[in-house]
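ingest -> validate -> predict -> emit
validate: passed (alphabet ok, no gaps, 352 aa)
predict: started
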Amino acid sequence: MGTPAFRPEPVRVRVPATSANLGPGFDALGLALGLYDEVEVAVAPEGLRISVHGHGAGEVPEDDSHLVVRALRTTLERVGGQPPGLTLTCTNRIPHGRGMGSSAAAIVAGVVAARALVPESADHLDEAEMLALATKLEGHPDNVAACLRGGLTVAWTDAQAIAHAVRLEPAPFDPVLFVPETPVSTHAARGLLPALVPHGDAALNAGRAALLVAALTSMASREGDRASQEGDRVPGNGSGAGGVDIDLLMAATEDRLHQSYRVPAMPGSAALVADLRAHGHPAVVSGAGPTVLAFAHAGQGEELRTHAPEGYVVHLLPLDRSGARVLIGGAGNEGPGKDVVQRGEARSERFC
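emit:
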């Protein structure tokens, strides 16, 4: 394959924060959240210039080891080759080292931006291949699947270590995120996990993970059936119509595989999870922590805010149902964006 034809104008990509595991769904379940990083990439005559704003500014590397650049270059190599130079601007709103998918967002942004920089690559780099590329860089598919596709995702790797995912439409609810001041590295959090767990604990988690998928999607399914019969739209997040069963979620979010083992790295988060659950609010550690995710009915977020310990920042977020989006043109161009991936024959247009 020869050197590809690069798009002459900048490409802007928006990627959502994600929460993985959701309690029992270790390394499998992911949920996309309405908090976004944006990346703008342009082909330059030479060199590499990186600007970072927001989280990580002055801390993340500004060379080829930058995670977005690594994902960009890996994907560009896959679709035909490297440009003479790159200019990258990152606007980071997702906290780093907090279990909200910041590394997955960086990787997905790089993969998606590279695909958009080479228009002809859309014909031979589909969503499945983007997921596989992103997973190889991230090491596990749960966050990258939700970041790429939006909504609720169930991800797995096959016998050849290739990642796959299915996307589900979550029922209406409001995620509430409690973000502490101090980060915890994913590597350190994973290092606390045992190599083996009791069979009974594994069995409990298998059942709870299945129940959790049902609990998070059952109302959406019922509303979807009703909408198809009546010709109405399914109520959106926070609509007040329907929603998740909080009592069912209390049982469905039980976990014995990872959260208890990570308490030494995040005792404050563990105490907050226990406090929220004691007051009837389903709560879990988000990803590898230390952020805590609570599931709330619409309008209940302010009540949960009172549980935040000193030093925690509370985010009352909507669900993200769209996943990664790409907008051709720089920050001053507010033209129509498009889906990163095709679903069926349609390519829906949106504004980023």
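The chain is about 30% helix and 25% strand.
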